[in-house]
Amino acid sequence: MITSKLTKQLLHTTDNYIKSLNKANIISVWDLLNHYPRSYEDRTNVLDDFSLINIKEKNTILVKLISLDTKRTKNWKILTKWVLEDKNWFYSEVVWFNRKYLASQLSAFKQKQILVSGKVKYDYWKVSFSSPEVQTDLSKVVWEIVPVYQELNYVPSKWILSKMKLLESYIQYIERFTRIYNK
Q1: H/E element, 166
Q2: How many angstroms separate the Cα of 24 from the Cα of each of 3, 28, 35, 136, 174?
Q3: 112/124 Cα distance (integer angstroms)
Q4: Domain tally for the chain?
Q5: Quick one: average pLDDT of 122-126?
Q6: Distance (Å, rounded) from C-alpha 103 to C-alpha 94?
Q7: What are the CA-CA distances from residue 76 to residues 69, 71, 73, 96, 129 (Å)?
Q8: Residues 93 and 27 in one domain
Q9: Is the pLDDT of residue 178 over 80?
Q10: How far apart are CA 84 and CA 82, in angstroms?
Q11: Same domain, 109 and 153
Q12: What's the whole-model pTM score?
């Protein structure tokens, strides 16, 4: 059972993801379960004030999305900028390059609360996030310590985490498999 081959039905995914996993020698359920996290991210401490941010760490903060703008740079890159507001009406910005679809997807959340998680910079007398993770559905926010997996052939950590949750039912077979495997 734990040696079952990974399929798109089992992981609820596409052939491209299965091929990428196979290229990284992740072929069976056992292989994926043995792909351990490279680190853990503490999301229990959600901030709501920019003054509490630690520039040396990844921060998660609850903010209001004030405005968003997309334009082309001189180099023909697409620059997406947001302005965020904390509970004390202080502002920050978020910057992405070549992610135009973000503005169209998130324009519905203008003037609403969102969760932004990422590394922070303090440049030119302002706090800014560069390509952070964004969570718009606050009911799905996980207020816990979250594993961060190493990316495998362009398969992102977030995707791997979601698929690990699908494989939880296989964990009961690990002890039996390791006894048989180690004989």
Answers
A1: helix 157-166
A2: 17, 12, 10, 32, 21
A3: 27
A4: 2
A5: 80
A6: 12
A7: 16, 9, 5, 14, 21
A8: no
A9: no
A10: 6
A11: no
A12: 0.64
For 173, phi then psi, to 5°, come to -90, -5
Residue 29 token pair: 């359920």
Amino acid at 49: D
pLDDT digits (tens, 9 = 90+) for 31-74: 998 899 998 877 777 888 888 888 888 888 889 989 888 888 88
Q: Residues 40, 43, 44, 49: is their CA dihedral positive or negative?
A: positive
Amino acid making up residue 25? N
Q: Which residue has the tokens 């203008």?
A: 110
The pLDDT assigned to 16 comes to 92
Query: Which amino acid is it at 12?
Result: H
SS3 content of the chain, % helix, strand, coil (to 5): 30, 35, 35
Residue 106 lies in a domain: yes
